[in-house]
Every structure is written in C-alpha cells, then in structure tokens.
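Please, structure for the following, as tokens.
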Amino acid sequence: MSKEEAIAKLIQVFRQYGYEGTTLAKLSKATGLGKASLYHYFPGGKAEMGEAVLEYANNWFQTTVLKPLKSDGQPEARIMAMSQQINKFYSEGQETCLWSILSVGEAQDLFNSQIQNSLITWIDALTQVLIEAGIEAEQARQKSEDAIIQVQGALILTRVLNNNSPFKRTLAELPKTLLGK
C-alpha cells in the first residue's frame, strides 16, 4: 500500500472517531498496516498522521472546491460549481468535516493554523467572486463568511438528524443567497 492509499484510509478513521478517539489500533485496522508500518510512513505517530490527513484534504479542497472560484466565468456559474464540488467533498453531507474534527481538543493546538489558513483562503476566494459580481467588499466578505457558516451548520444538522436534505438544500440555494437573486 502506498502512503497516499494509507492516508485515504486514515481519513475515515479520523472522521469517525475524531482526533482524540483515534488510536493506533484503529488506524492499523483501517489500513491493514501493522503499527511498525504506520510508523515507517509516519514517524511522528498520530500527530503526523493527522497532519497528513489534513494536508491531503486541504489539497483536494484547493484543487476541486476552490479551483472553480478562481476560474474564469460568470460568478453564479463559479459559485454553482463550488457548491457541486462541496457536495462531492462531503458526500452529499454524509461525511463529517475534517476541519471541525481537527479543530477541537488536543488537535486544536496541532492543526489550528492549517485549518485557519484553509478557511481564510476559501473566504477570500468567495469574496473575490462576489466583488466581481458587483457586491461591495465588506458585504461580500460578510456574505462569504455566512455561506461557510451555513455549509458547516448544515453538515452538523445532517449528521445529528441523519438526514442530508438540509445540506443539499443549503448548497442548492447558496448561489441565490450569495448573489441575492
């Protein structure tokens, strides 16, 4: 198994158990790798695995979710493309947000800076699209922050209610909400 394949399997463990609930035994079982093999790939242990998982997710987010926002095209189409990619990223709301999982407890001290940078990058990219759509900068920033609050809140509601309708509805309405159409 390659390191990248191992990371993809580690993601599910962190999503399911959170950082503090994730153990080497659970990580070993999920990957099929012994503890020695895990340490071969990740000499820094669980913290390095968490960092690798976060980096993997952040890279995927950059290339699939943020890329549409930074492309050419009409603002509404770019926001719709972003919403579609977010839907894929979170498996229609069925996947827990790694950022939220890795921003509490012991993990907060380890990963807060990376998560903060990712969220700021997302807010900045979305804000720029809204400015291009003719929305004043301060309002565009606030709308961008509110959109991320809506997405993250819909993820929580979906998980707690075991119903992805709020998540899907939030993403479907996001372009209208942001652009006031």
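Residues 106-132 form the longest helix (27 residues). The mean pLDDT is 94.
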